[in-house]
């Protein structure tokens, strides 16, 4: 969420005193456009370390608008994305979530911070009560279910929270921004203070990257979506004289621009490989952006290579068990393709067509998944 220069930023630490098995480090950014709660929760879950990173973006009325969660547990990394229009209509990972219809707030089951959302949104007078329907995120399953909840303001800075389905209730002592100080023997605040400015590079990454594909892509997202992650392998360049230059390379893919594009970073040689030398050495450090043209039904790609000065534009999509993209380079037709595709491998080929119409191999990448 874009914030103006008047943004007030705090950070807080809570300890889970209920069982002494967890901590949370949270950050609060509050500006004219609204508030963002973000943080990292570290807990021992069923004997295994669990790390959950989250962001909750609210508008200026404290209505939940966007939620992202990334969880690492037992060797698996999972993500969750929620969108809310402010009127009780939700999307989960880009799909309509009818089961959450009518929910007003998100409730992250591992975090005390999201109790501040209904407290600030409702602005209850002392002695008043309210019932609400929350989108409750359960960990480690990352399930999202509707939950009937009640809040009562029982003192100037004290609230009673109640789960209207389970009967669980707890007293919350909060600060002026509704953030818990003491959560009835469950969570206790240990520290709070002004936050250092956010890392510009990290903020850029957060603005660029997306948790998954946009719903606008529909089934087309699957064409290249399987590439998301990291790959490494052997890079061969075939020269006109028949010689072959070989290096090791790495290739990283992720959804970007609100999930409307898939971008990669291609690096040869790999960053952990020796630096190349000599005029014929393989060296690439470039990026491709892929977007889907719904009118033409094709994927459009643009490859930019600052190291070689190349900018290539191609278009195409799936042809049988291959992905084929066609374009031109210096007036000659070129063809880039993905083949031999498996869960953990693929082969990429770059070809150019000669005047006789024959395709000649220029490059071949044999890649294996590493992330």
UniProtKB/TrEMBL annotation:
Stored InterPro entries: Glycolipid-bd_prot_put
* One family name in Pfam for this protein: Glycolipid_bind
Name the chain's protein.
Putative glycolipid-binding domain-containing protein
The species this protein belongs to is Corallococcus exercitus
The uppermost taxa in this organism's lineage are: Bacteria, Pseudomonadati, Myxococcota, Myxococcia, Myxococcales
